[in-house]
Design a protein that fits this description.
The complex is a heterodimer of chains A (255) and B (359). Chain A has 255 residues and is α/β, with parallel strands linked by helices. Chain A has ten helices and nine strands. Chain B is α/β, with parallel strands linked by helices and 359 residues long. Classes of the chains: A alpha/beta (255), B alpha/beta (359). Bound molecules: thiamine diphosphate. The site of thiamine diphosphate has 18 residues of chain A, from helix 4 and strand 5.
Chain lengths: 255, 359
C-alpha cells in the first residue's frame, strides 16, 4: 500500500468492510456473475446474526459447487439436484443449527424439482436459495428449465421454442402454493437497491429459521453474461427487460 | 439384558436399529421390505431414543438424506428392495467418494425391471462391484437368518464408521419375510453431538473452534484426485485384509462344496443333509461378507475338493467370484432358480450330481 492509500483506507474513512465470514479466496466466477454478490450477502447475514459456528450450508452441482471455498462455514456438497434432501436430514438431525441450501435453476428446477418441492411441502425449517440465471452456466450455456422463449442457448441455438422445448417454469410461484413454505420471494442483485432488498430477504429467511416458521425460499433472478454472451452491463439491461417481465420481483408469500 | 422375540427379518432390522442407537431412518415403501418403516412408525422411536424416522419422496431423496445425515456424523440408514436400490446408486457413489458412513439394506426381489415382488438374489453384482460410477466399494454383509438381520445392523454401522464407508446389508425376500426367534441386546444410547464431534472431527456440525469442514466428492486437480482414489484403494485393501467373514459347514471331509449366502445358504444346509444321506460328501462355504469376499478360503478348497457349486437365486453372479477364487483348479458351476422360485434342497443336490458326479 502507498502512503496515500494508507491514509485513504484509514479506519475513520471506512464505510464498508468485507464480512468476516467471507474468505479471502479469489472467486472462480466470471466477471459480472451474480453468484459472488449473493455469496457476500449470505456471509453478511451470517456475520450479523453471529451464527457462523452454527451454520451448515449445502452446495449444488453447478457454477456454485465451490461456494464452500468462499463462505467460511461448514458445508456439504450434494449430488446434482439433491441439496434439499441433504438439508432436510441435516436440519432434522441437528434442529438447533442453521441450515441453508444454495442451488442454480438446472439443479433446483430440472433434475432436482422433486427434492425441492417436497422439502418445501414438508415445510423443512431451512433456507433455500435459488439462483435463476436462465441457463446452465457450469456446463457451458445449455438450455435451462427457466430459459425464456426465444432466448438462445447452446442446446437451442435458434432460441427456446416453447412448442418444442416446453415453457420456462416459475418454480417460485409453485413453492408459494405449498403449505410448508412461510416466506417465498423473488429478488435480484443488479443494482445497489436490489442488493439491499435481497439482503433483507435473506436476513428474514434466516430469522424465520430461528422462529421455526418452515421453509423460506428465496429466488434471485441473476445474469450469466458468459452463457448469455453479453457484457455484464448489457446482461443487466437484458435481464431487466426480459427476465423481470417473466419473473416479476417481490414477495410472493410472507406469513 | 438379553430379550428373546419371534419376528420377521424385516421387523428385526427395525428393532435392532432402535436398540443400537441409530439417529435417522429415511426410506420409501417397496415390497418385500415395507415392514421395516412400518415397524419403526409403530414403535415411534422419536419419543424414546430420539431417532428421526422420515418417509422420503423417493429412494433418490432417501439416499441423499443419508448423505446429509452421515456428513453430520449421525448413524443413518435406509432400506429398500431392488428397483429402489437401483435409484440409490448415484447417491452411494457420492457417499463412497465423500467417505461417509451409512447403512443401506437391500431386501432383494427379482428383476430386471419391475420384475417380481418375490425373493431373489440377483443384485449381487450391483452390491459388490460398485453399482454406481467410479472406483469404489461398499462393505457388503449377507445375513442368512433373522438373528443375523438384527446383528448385522450394528455390525454394519461399526464397519461403516471404522472405515468411513457405506455398508450394505444384502438380504433377500426370504430372510426379510420369514419369522424366527431372535435375541436382542439391551438398548444402547445414541451418541451425543459432543461425542460425535470429538470422535469424528471431520463432521459438519458447525465450525466451533476449528477450520470449516467440507464434505465433498469433487476434486478437479488430477494429482489430488488420483491421491484420493489411491487413498480409497488403500482403505479397500485394508478391509480385504481385516474384515473377511465366512462360515464353513461340514467341509472337513468334503469332496464337493457349495458356496452360497443368504436364503440359498439355508437351503444348502438342508441339501448337505440330503446329499450326505446319499453318501455324497459335500460341505459349504457361506460368505458372510460378500465384499470383502472370502477368496482365500475358497481358493484353498481348490486343493481339497473335486468340484464347487455356487448356489444363488439368480442366473449366476456369485459364481464369477467363486471362479476367480478357484482360478481353474477344479470345475465351478452355478445353480439357481429365479423369477421368485426358491430352489429346493433336492434340486440343489440333483444339480450337484448332474454337474459333477453322473458321467
Ligand atoms: C447427474 C448429473 N447430470 C448432469 C450433470 C452435469 N451438470 C453439471 S452442472 C449442470 C447444470 C448447472 O446449471 P444450473 O443449476 O442452472 O447452475 P449454474 O451453473 O447456471 O449456476 C449440469 C447439467 C451432473 N453433474 N450430474
Amino acid at each position: 500500500m502507498t502512503e496515500v492509500e494508507k491514509v485513504i483506507i484509514s479506519p475513520e474513512n471506512l464505510v464498508y468492510s468485507k464480512p468476516s465470514v467471507l474468505t479471502d479466496n479469489v472467486m472462480h466466477y466470471c466477471p459480472g456473475c451474480s453468484h459472488g454478490t449473493i455469496h457476500k450477502l449470505i456471509a453478511e447475514v451470517i456475520d450479523e446474526m453471529g451464527i457462523q459456528e452454527e451454520t451448515i450450508g449445502v452446495t449444488p452441482v453447478g457454477c456454485s459447487v465451490f461456494a464452500y471455498n468462499y463462505i467460511d462455514v461448514d458445508w456439504q456438497e450434494a449430488a446434482h439436484g439433491r441439496a434439499p434432501a441433504l438439508a432436510t436430514a441435516i436440519k432434522r438431525l441437528l434442529p438447533e443449527k442453521y441450515v441453508f441450501s444454495y442451488q442454480g435453476d438446472g439443479d433446483l428446477a430440472a433434475i432436482g424439482t422433486g427434492e425441492a418441492i417436497h422439502a418445501c411441502n414438508r415445510g423443512e425449517n431451512i433456507v433455500m436459495v435459488f439462483v435463476n440465471n436462465g441457463i446452465y452456466g457450469m456446463t457451458g450455456g445449455q438450455m435451462a428449465p427457466t430459459t425464456l422463449p426465444g432466448m438462445p442457448s447452446s442446446t437451442c441455438p435458434a432460441g427456446r421454442d416453447a412448442g418444442r422445448d416446453g415453457h420456462p417454469i416459475r418454480i417460485t410461484e409453485i413453492m408459494a402454493q405449498l403449505p410448508g413454505t412461510s416466506f417465498v420471494t423473488r429478488q435480484a442483485v443488479h443494482t445497489a437497491a436490489a442488493v439491499r432488498k435481497t439482503k433483507k430477504a435473506l436476513k428474514k429467511a434466516f430469522e424465520n429459521q430461528t422462529a421455526g416458521k418452515g421453509t423460506s425460499f428465496i429466488e434471485v433472478v441473476s445474469t450469466c453474461n458468459s452463457g448469455w454472451k453479453m457484457t455484464p452491463v448489457k446482461a443487466n439491461e437484458w435481464m431487466e427487460e426480459h427476465m423481470f417481465a417473466y419473473y416479476p420481483l417481490g414477495d410472493v408469500k410472507d406469513l | 439384558m438379553k430379550e428373546l422375540k419371534l419376528m420377521k427379518g424385516n421387523e428385526a432390522i427395525a428393532e435392532a436399529a432402535i436398540r443400537c442407537g441409530v439417529d435417522g431412518y429415511f426410506g420409501y415403501p417397496i415390497t418385500p421390505q415395507s415392514e421395516i418403516m412400518e415397524t419403526l412408525m409403530l414403535n415411534k422411536p422419536w419419543e424414546t431414543t430420539g431417532m428421526v424416522v422420515l418417509q422420503a419422496e423417493s429412494e433418490v431423496a432417501s439416499i441423499n438424506m443419508l448423505y446429509g445425515g452421515a456428513g453430520c456424523g449421525k448413524k443413518v440408514m435406509t432400506t429398500s428392495s431392488s428397483p429402489g436400490v437401483s435409484l440409490m446408486q448415484e447417491g452411494l457413489s457420492y457417499l463412497a467418494g465423500a467417505e461417509l458412513p451409512c447403512v443401506v439394506v437391500n431386501v432383494v426381489r427379482g428383476g430386471p425391471g419391475l420384475g417380481t415382488i418375490q425373493p431373489a438374489q440377483s443384485d449381487y453384482f450391483q452390491a459388490v462391484k460398485g453399482g454406481g460410477h467410479g472406483d469404489y466399494k461398499l462393505i457388503v454383509l449377507a445375513p442368512a437368518s433373522v438373528q443375523e438381520m438384527a446383528d448385522f445392523v450394528e455390525l454394519s454401522f461399526d464397519l461403516a464408521f471404522k472405515y468411513r464407508n457405506p455398508a450394505m446389508i444384502l438380504s433377500d425376500g426370504v430372510i426379510g419375510q420369514m419369522m424366527e426367534k431372535v435375541e436382542f441386546d439391551a438398548y444402547k444410547p445414541r451418541w451425543t453431538n459432543e461425542e460425535i464431534v470429538k470422535n469424528y472431527p471431520w463432521v459438519t456440525q458447525g465450525k466451533k473452534g476449528r477450520e470449516r469442514n467440507v464434505i465433498t466428492s469433487v476434486e478437479l486437480d488430477p494429482e489430488k484426485h488420483e491421491a484420493l482414489n489411491q487413498k480409497l484403494w488403500a482403505k479397500y485393501k485394508e478391509i480385504e485384509k481385516t474384515e473377511v467373514r465366512y462360515e464353513t459347514i461340514q467341509c472337513e471331509d468334503a469332496e464337493y462344496i457349495f458356496v452360497a449366502y443368504g436364503a440359498s445358504a439355508r437351503i444348502c444346509e438342508k441339501a448337505i443333509e440330503v446329499a450326505r444321506e446319499k453318501g455324497i460328501k459335500v460341505g459349504m462355504v457361506r460368505p458372510i461378507t460378500l465384499y470383502p469376499f472370502p477368496t482365500k478360503v475358497i481358493r484353498d478348497f481348490g486343493n481339497q475338493v473335486k468340484g464347487v457349486l455356487s448356489v444363488e437365486m439368480s442366473s449366476g453372479q456369485l459364481v464369477e467370484d467363486v471362479r476367480l477364487a478357484i482360478n481353474g483348479k477344479v470345475p465351478v458351476e452355478h445353480f439357481g432358480r429365479s423369477g421368485g422360485i426358491i430352489h429346493s434342497p433336492s434340486e440343489v443336490v440333483e444339480a450337484l450330481e448332474n454337474f459333477f458326479i453322473k458321467e
